[in-house]
Design a protein that fits this description.
The protein has about 600 residues and is mainly alpha-helical. It has 28 helices and no strands.
Length: about 600
């Protein structure tokens, strides 16, 4: 095939007939997957295509040359990239001009692929490329955007803009320049209510805030709020990634001006109180409230009661899905976990009209009743920490309902922790499978390293691996047959909203729910014997075994955490507080 292309197709690139030149480019595009034995043949093909792109006066020839060039580079990997790299700037600039002239959506896709492939080489021209793309978008949308072809091209341009911004996000100097250019097109879309492009515009806002939030972007938050007020709830879920960034990327700035929190709260309030938004936007609104609480911890106590009230009010109305109900519960649980001294007394002292029980009684009953509807690692972790917070209330301020429901609290805790344990093991297995697959692929593509290159800190690495292997062996072999059955049925690994991370989801999060529970048991056993007896005295042998299993797992998790610290520190051993593994579950202290 290589010889056929060189002898029969290459000569047609210099034909006096534009149709034949375009056809030659098209043929090379169709056979771009050809493996060139002679690198000179590939080099010649890219050189000819570049000439046709830049120097040819016939538009069809230029377009076909651009498409063939991108495909040829993609199919030939590093070899093709190295050959094109010295000329990538004039090639991309010429392709941008072509897009503006032809409004061809295939060209915008080709540019997007080249930007992603040559991300290290794009930096010097990133601003120029983005400016071209924005101006071309404005030119296309100045005319009739209801035209399907124009709309597709415009959407491709927005996707290409996002690709440029994404590859430049670590370069703060360039991002400052790109931000103003990109905001121009976002503002144009929102101000003109060009709803066909709202999704892409909001995605761009998310990309601009993914690693930093500039003063300009903080002001743009109010622009988003005005859009939300004007256009209703339809695009709130599309706004969610950007709103999450505002809260999590620069939390200090978010908390520095209460107007930012008020804007978020007002949007969530309107959705949860509307009655017409639909449960998916409501689910996202509740999740956003939970993120605000967990990210801000106890620094928003002045607005926390309003947030909790909003979630509780939604729980009093009809809810069709368990997901929304448990998400609203989770907002309150997060508030209890972060600010127990404020929330627990308020809930215990508040009784709704026409209700016979305080809010805390009703809430705890609903929470424990819905344990089987709580899935995923994050949601279970929040519930586990919330239950630990409820159990850890000091005797002097402990509401009567907690003492009354104490027989239900430890079984509920075990249910949550068993689900979490299965989820963590499943995730570890998936991660190991993924690592194994990647390793196999690399082994196919690269030569095996020499043995002397692998001997760096071999003893330390073997020690870490033995720790992990020991923990995994213990985890797998410690389960009974009934837990194996539960594990085989366990399919829910994460919920759809777990991508909106919080500090509790960080790999290095120092708050471990298993360790917290184990230490809480020990603390109660030594300081609050009566309540400890109320919690554990009624447990049967199986339940006690399950508690002990969770405590052993806590010890393993602490060992694994220390292993990670050891690995990151280069071998330094951290001092830790041991987790007690022996508990008196029956009888009184001292028996």
């Amino acid at each position: 095939m290589e010889a056929l292309l060189v002898n029969c197709v290459y000569p047609m690139f210099t034909s006096e007939y534009g149709f034949l030149r375009a056809r030659a480019c098209w043929v090379l595009h169709q056979f771009s997957s050809t493996r060139f034995a002679d690198i000179a043949s590939l080099s010649r093909a890219l050189e000819i295509l570049q000439q046709r792109l830049i120097e040819d006066t016939c538009l069809p020839v230029k377009v076909e040359a651009a498409l063939a060039m991108q495909s040829l580079v993609e199919e030939n990997g590093e070899k093709g990239m190295e050959l094109l790299r010295p000329q990538i700037r004039p090639v991309i600039i010429e392709m941008l001009k072509l897009v503006r002239e032809t409004e061809n959506d295939e060209l915008s896709v080709a540019i997007q692929k080249l930007v992603c492939a040559f991300e290290d080489d794009i930096a010097p021209i990133a601003v120029e490329v983005t400016q071209h793309l924005v101006e071309t978008f404005e030119k296309i949308t100045d005319s009739d955007v209801s035209d399907d072809d124009k709309a597709v091209t415009a959407m491709g341009l927005l996707n290409t803009i996002e690709s440029v911004v994404s590859v430049m996000e670590e370069n703060k100097h360039i991002m400052i320049q790109l931000e103003n250019i990109v905001l121009r097109v976002i503002t144009f879309i929102i101000d003109k209510s060009v709803m066909d492009f709202y999704e892409e515009a909001l995605s761009l806002v998310g990309t601009l805030t993914v690693s930093q939030v500039s003063p300009t972007m903080w002001q743009f938050l109010f622009h988003l709020y005005h859009m939300f007020e004007r256009d209703g709830f339809d695009y709130f879920t599309d706004m969610m990634p950007a709103l999450h960034n505002y809260i999590t990327v620069d939390t200090e700035a978010f908390l520095s001006d209460r107007k930012y929190c008020e804007v978020m709260f007002q949007m969530c309030s309107r959705i949860l109180n509307s009655g017409t938004a639909g449960e998916d936007p409501e689910l996202h609104a509740a999740k956003l409230l939970e993120v605000i609480i967990l990210q801000s911890k106890d620094r928003i106590n002045e607005v926390l009661p309003s947030i909790v009230e909003l979630a509780l009010q939604r729980l009093t109305r009809s809810i069709n899905t368990s997901e929304l109900r448990t998400m609203c519960l989770q907002v309150v649980i997060a508030a209890i976990f972060t600010s127990p001294l404020l929330l627990i007394p308020q809930l215990a002292q508040t009784t709704l009209p026409n209700a016979t029980q305080p809010l805390l009684d009703q809430f705890l009953s609903q929470w424990l009743n819905d344990l089987d509807c709580i899935f995923g690692i994050h949601d279970r972790k929040v519930s586990a920490l919330g239950l630990c917070t409820i159990i850890s209330t000091i005797p002097e301020s402990r509401p009567e309902v907690i003492a009354r429901m104490s027989p239900q609290l430890v079984p509920a805790m075990v249910t949550i922790l068993k689900g979490l344990k299965r989820a963590y093991i499943k995730r570890a297995e998936n991660d190991a499978d993924s690592s194994g697959s990647e390793g196999d692929e690399e082994e196919c593509d690269e030569n095996v390293l020499e043995s002397d290159e692998d001997e760096v800190d071999e003893e330390g690495q073997l020690y870490l691996e033995s720790l992990k292997a020991k923990a995994m062996h213990s985890l797998k072999n410690g389960d009974d047959d009934d837990e194996e059955e539960e594990d085989s049925e366990f399919e829910v690994e994460e919920t759809a909203l777990e991508g909106y991370y919080t500090p509790l989801d960080d790999e290095d999060c120092e708050i471990d729910e298993f360790v917290t529970f184990a230490r809480l048991i020990h603390h109660l056993q030594t300081t609050d014997a009566n309540f400890y007896q109320a919690l554990f005295g009624h447990l049967d042998e199986e339940q006690r075994r399950q508690v002990e299993d969770m405590v052993k797992y806590a010890e393993q998790r602490q060992a694994a955490a220390e292993s990670r610290k050891l690995e990151k520190s280069g071998g330094y051993m951290f001092n830790t507080t041991a987790i007690p593994t022996s508990f008196n579950f029956g009888g009184k202290m001292g028996d």
